[in-house]
Write a structure and sequence with these properties.
Layout: H1 3-16, E1 28-30, E2 40-44, E3 51-57, E4 63-67, E5 70-74, E6 77-81, E7 85-92, E8 97-103, H2 104-109, H3 112-131, H4 141-145, E9 148-156
Antiparallel strand pairs: 1-2, 2-3, 3-6, 4-5, 7-8, 7-9
Helix pairs in contact: 1-3
Bound molecules: zinc ion (ZN).
Zinc ion binds at residues 45, 47-48, 50, 102-103, 105-106.
């Protein structure tokens, strides 16, 4: 990684250090042990900390086995949005847009100052995923320097 990219990355991360008002700046929780290690366990609203995606149990059994005279049924689990899940489109000062997942209440009431922290949490998340080997982030000046101004659209799951 060249020096210019490192400078931009450091700038983005120092911006993330300005996070003061988010309840869950580390909004993605991973499974820490077992065969599903590294998979996402839950996603939280960065602002209030409420769970917006959790693991739910599927209906159709994957397999069943007799173990010590008892039938053990293996059910699938999947990450699913909770009823308060919302996707908020952030408008930036440079005309660009970015979608973040929040709870519906926070998406509706978010002020520009808190949106800045929400975006900084994303920069932090991208750096963490990059460090874990999840692919290189394109650390451009615009990625690091742009500032969110408002939520222009909110999408919910209609169910
Ligand atoms: Zn919230």
């Amino acid at each position: 990684m060249n020096e210019e990219i490192i400078k931009r990355k450091v700038k983005g991360l120092s911006r993330a250090l300005g996070i003061r008002n988010l309840k869950k700046p580390n909004f993605v929780e991973y499974i820490e042990t077992g065969p599903l290690q590294g998979q996402i366990k839950a996603v939280f609203c960065r602002i209030c900390g409420m769970a917006i995606k959790t693991l739910i149990r599927g209906e159709e059994p994957l397999d069943s086995k007799e173990i010590n005279g008892k039938t053990v049924v293996y059910l699938p689990v999947m990450l699913a949005e909770t009823s308060n899940y919302a996707e908020a489109t952030l408008d930036f000062d440079d005309g660009s847009k970015h979608i973040v997942a929040l709870c519906l209440g926070c998406a509706k009431g978010a002020k520009a100052s808190i949106l800045e922290e929400v975006y900084a949490a994303d920069l932090m998340q991208w750096e963490q995923e990059e460090r874990k080997g999840g692919g290189e982030v394109c650390w451009t000046d615009s990625l690091v320097n742009r500032t969110p101004t408002k939520v222009s659209e909110i999408r919910t799951l209609n169910r």
